[in-house]
Amino acid sequence: MDNFWYEEGKWWVSPYNFTDEVRKEFSLPENVSIHDATLRDGEQTPGVVFTKEDKIKIAQELDKIGIERIEAGMPAVSQDDFEAIKEITSLNLKAKIFTFARAMKQDIDSAVDCGAYGVVIEIPIGFPKLKYQFNWTWEDVLRKSVDVINYAKEKNLYVVYFPYDTTRARISDLENLLKGIIKNSNPDSVGVIDTMGCALPQAIQFLVKKVKTLTKLPVEVHTHNDFGMAVATELAGIMAGAEVVHSCINGLGERTGNAALEELLLGIHILLGIRKDYKFNRIVEFANLLEEISGVKLPQNKPVTGKMNFTRESGIGVDLVIKEPLAMFATDPKFTDRKGEIVLGKKSGKLSVLYYLDMLGIKDIADEKIIEILKQVKLLGLRKRTLVNLDEFKQITNKILG
After folding, report:
1. DSSP labels for 283-312?
2. Can you give the C-alpha Rg of the chain in angstroms?
3. Phi then psi for 4, rounded to 5 degrees?
4. How far apart are CA 171 and CA 18, in angstroms?
5. Which of 129, 306, 319, 373 would give a disulfide with 124, using CB separation of 3.0 to 4.6 Å?
6. CA–CA distance from 47 to each of 44, 101, 289 (Å)?
């Protein structure tokens, strides 16, 4: 995989990602799809409410980016949700539309009535859930699952079996459940769900391989971000052979949220080298739209979409932000329709001052004047405890240059 780590004007990542010694540990599938759950799991973010119009707009934008599967919601939540899902399925998007369902036949009927392509059937298998929340055994889970899976298949739905809290299941419970599921029903794929975001990437890989061995079915990975590793664990799942990974734009979701769609897109395409025809130039605009709709503000240093990801205050190498951005960043700002930016403050150097002087059309300044301007910029940045804006820089410059 020579040169997969570099593409001119787009990215320059570690070549070690593509060495034989690293790649031989992978079991990459032939193709990977993203199943985005922003409209269901994303809306479960406390305080977030999407209107029907919001949901339609979000679904359309996901489709424009090229997301293969959209989880449009859970019809059982409300009549509004039902109607929004039905409207989305009527749009004839390229993305396949799924609904989320409990292990209940009425939820399957709702998916059919909505016109959904498929259904994600959730049921617990994590031992803390079974012991303290439901008072069930794995046998109870199996009994409740089989008829609903078969019923959904009779209705010609694509069935994702979603035994949640998988990563806290007792291995014997998980093995017995999946053996029983395969013996008595025929889902199309099975999920490995890290509901509490508490599994290491290696643990996800172990479970993906275990589930594939037991079921001989495609495996999907859905992780939360409680320990800050959601994207890493989902990429690890792909390395172990998972064909589908779940996401939410901006990492929305309960508690610490889900694997962020925008980070997965770049991770799959650039770090794993699985080339996908996603519209990377639409990602930031979409993230900003969701920030506005949801009211959940993005950190300025949020991976991929943070407003200051390509901003440099430190003086060393600052000119390369504009001249040779791949010397300073792993991805060229243009790849996601961004621009590099040089800002002024306490940590600035002479190159930053020269950049701003040139921007103002001021040239051929004596070196001692440049040093004095830099000194005043640093002092102002220290006094303000933030950046120095252009108007303040003009005032400093006018004062020193007369």
Report:
1. HHHHHHHHHHHH--PPPTT-TTT-TTTTEE
2. 25
3. -65, -20
4. 33
5. 129
6. 8, 22, 17
Give the pLDDT score at 324. 94
CA neighbours closer than 13 Å in the CB half-sphere of residue 322:
11
3-state secondary structure of 346: coil
Query: What is the rounded CA–CA span in Å between residue 245 and residue 243?
Result: 7
Residue 101 identity: A
End-to-end CA distance of the chain: 58
Q: 35's torsion region: left (phi>0), alpha (psi -120 to 50) or beta? A: beta
Q: Which domains does the chain have, with CATH numbers?
A: 31-294 (3.20.20.70), 350-401 (no CATH)
CB 235 within 8 A of CB 268: yes
Cβ neighbours of 25 (radius 10 Å): 9
* β partners of residue 219: 190
The Cα 297–Cα 181 span in angstroms is 42
Q: Is 334 helix (H, G, I), strand (E, B) or coil?
A: helix
CA gap 250, 229 in Å, rounded: 14
Q: What is the chain's percent helix, strand, coil content, to nearest 5? A: 50, 15, 35
Residue 121, token pair as written in the block: 């059937």
Task: Give the integer Cα–Cα distance in Å for 194 and 187.
Answer: 20
Q: Helices (H) and strands (E) in the chain — how many of each?
A: 15, 12
Q: Which two tokens stand for residue 290?
A: 């969701």
Residues whose CB falls within 8 Å of the CB of residue 99, separated by 6 or more in sequence, listed in order: 71, 72, 73, 74, 75, 85, 107, 110, 111, 114, 116, 118, 119, 120
d(CA 180, CA 190): 13
Q: Of 281, 191, 200, whose CA–CA distance to 243 is shortest?
A: 191
Q: pLDDT tens, 32-71?
A: 999 999 999 999 999 999 999 999 999 999 999 999 999 9
Q: Report the interhelical angle of 230-239 vs 201-215 (nearest 10°).
A: 40
Going by C-alpha positions, the residue among 183, 204, 184 that lies closest to residue 194 is: 204
Q: Tell me the pTM.
A: 0.94
In this structure, the number of other CB atoms found within 10 A of the CB of residue 78 comes to: 11
Residue type, 374: L
CA triple 90-221-105, angle to 5 deg: 50
What are the structure tokens assigned to 79, written together? 């009549």
